[in-house]
Amino acid sequence: MSSGKYGEGGKYLNLLIRLGIIMVLCILIGFLLGLFLDRQFNLKGIPIFIGVFGGVAGGFVFLFKEVMKLGDDDEN
After folding, report:
1. What is the SS3 assignment for 53?
2. What stretches in the chain show pLDDT beneath 70?
3. Considering the entire predicted model, what is its pTM?
């Protein structure tokens, strides 16, 4: 049977949109935090680099958790 009003396709589309938004937000927050630290302490871009990669890492952690949760839902 279909899950919800939009069926399985809607479920996966919702997941894709959510993951994309979270990934972009994590990277943006990391960048902005790095930019702030770079301007405060004049560290020649190192905090920006670290912030962006920290955001990417955080986004992938969230992505991994969501995909694992999705796998658990499919088994039940």
Report:
1. helix
2. 1-4, 74-76
3. 0.82
